[in-house]
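Re-run with default settings, no changes from the original entry. Doing this only to confirm the output is reproducible before filing.
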Amino acid sequence: MAPDAKTIERKAARLRRRLRNIEALRRVLRCLVVAAVASCGVILADRLLALEVDEWAVAGALAAAAAVCGAVWALARQPGLHEAAALADRKLNLRERISSALYLLESERPMDRAVVEDAASRAALVRVGDVFPYPFYRELKWLIAAVAAGACMALIPPMDLFASLDKPAVALQPIPPREAEKAAERLKEIKEKLNERAQLKDPLRLALIEKDLEQLQKDFEARKLDRAQAVAKLSKMNEQLAERKKTLEEMLRSTEGVKTNPSDRFTNELAKDLEMADFDAAKQALADLKKKIENGDFAEKDAAKLSEEMQKLAEQLQQSNPALAEAMKKAAEAMQAGQLNMALDALEMAQADLEELAEMMGQMQMLDDLQSECQAAQSEMAGSGGSGRQGEGPDLDGMSDKPSSDWKPGDSNRRGPGMGGPGIDRGGVARVGQDQVKFKNEQIKGQTQPGEILASFKVAGQQTRGEATVEYTEAYIEYAREAEDTLEREPMPLEFRGLVAEYFDSIQPSLQKAESSRDPAEAGLQLAPASPAN
C-alpha cells in the first residue's frame, strides 16, 4: 500500500476513534441522568412514605446499571470509518476529499492517485482534537442538577403521610441529650464487641449488623431520632440478632447424632466431646490422635481398629455434618490402606471443620451478650427502668412514669459452675446409670367389674348383631302412644302431622301375636288425626 493511502487510513481511524468516544460518553451520561432522576424518586418516596429502604444502595445500583446500559448502547451504535471521514470533511470544508479518497485507495488510475495524494496532504495537517473536541455535554448539567436535588431530598426528615392520615397527630418525644449520649456509648460498646469476632470467616454476615449499629450510633450522636423511632430501630436490631442466633443454633446441631461407645479404644474421647458439643476439646482430641499417627504408635491391628472406629463415627455424622463425615471417612479408608500421609491430610480437614464449629460456639456466646445489651438499650429508650419523679397523665397520678426494669439474663462468664470453664458451656446429655430399686409382689385390693363405656370407635368388619330384650310390638305400641299424646298435647304445624302419622303407619308390625295377649283395642291402636294447631 502506498504511503499516502496509509496516511489517510490512519487519520480516518483516529477520527473514528475520537468520534466513538464522544458518542459513548454522551450515551452513558444520558443513562446516568435517567438513573439520577429515578434515585431522586426513590429518596423522596422513602422520606414521605417511610419505606425503610437503603436509599444510597438503591442509587448506587441504579448508577451501575445505567453505566452498563450506556456502554452497551455505545457498543451497539459505533460510527463507521467513512462516516467519521465524511463528518471531518464537512467540519473542515474539504469537499469530501478524505471520504472520497477512502474509496480510491486501491485504484491505479492516474486521476484517482492524484485525488488520494491531495487528500493525504490535507489529512496530514488535520489535528483530531481540533476536528472533534470533547464538548461540555448538555447531559452533564442535568446530571449535576439531579444529584443536587437528591442530596437536598436526603435532608428531608422521614415521615409517613399515609400513617398521618389514618392516625391522629401525636407529639414526638425527643430524646434528652444525656440519654442520647448514653445510648450512643452503649451502641459503641456493642459494636466493639462485634469487632472481636474472628475476621477469617463470617458465616452469619455479622458485618451487616455492624454497619447498621454504626449508622444507628451516628443517628443518636446527631440526635436525628425521637424516642419512638429509636425504640423501633433497636427492636429491629434485636430481631436481626435473634435471626442470626437461630441460624447459628441450627449449625451447632451438626453433631447431635454422635453416640459414644465404651468399646472404642481410640475415638471414645473424640466422640464424647462431639456428643457434648465441646468442639475445642474435640479439636484437641483429634490433634492428639494425629500426633500418635505421626509417631507411628499404631500397630497393624490397632490401625485396623482405628479405621473401623472412624468409619462408625463418619456414619453417625453423615446426616448432620456431611463435610466432617467425609473427612473422617477418607481418614478411615487411608488408615485401612496403610496410607498414613493421606490419613493425616484427611484428619487435618476434619480439624479445620472442628475449628470452624468452635468459632461458631464463640460467636454464639457473643450473640447472647449482644442481644442482652441491645435489649437493655431498647428498654432504657422505651422508658423502662428507674423511678423517682411524678407520673404524667390521669392514670399515673402519684406513680412513676417508668415501670420496673425488664428481666435480662445474667453474665455467665464470671459466675456459676460449668464444664471446661466458669459457666461457659452449652450443656449436653446427662449420663444415666443403673439405679438400685426393690420390687414387692402385692395385688391391689379392690373389686373388678365392668364399667361405663368411655369411648367407641369404628372397626373394619361385620357388625355384631345386638341382643334385643323388649319385643318389637311392645316397643311400637309404647312409642306410638307417646307420639299420639304429644300430637294432642303440643301444637305442631299441619305439614308435619301427616308425616309423623305416615312414619308410624310404615313401621306398624303385624299385631296378630299381640292380639292374643293384649287388649284388642290396645293391639289395634291407630294414630287419630289431631286437631289443627292454633
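The chain has a mean pLDDT of 71. The chain has three domains: 3-154, 172-385, 472-523.
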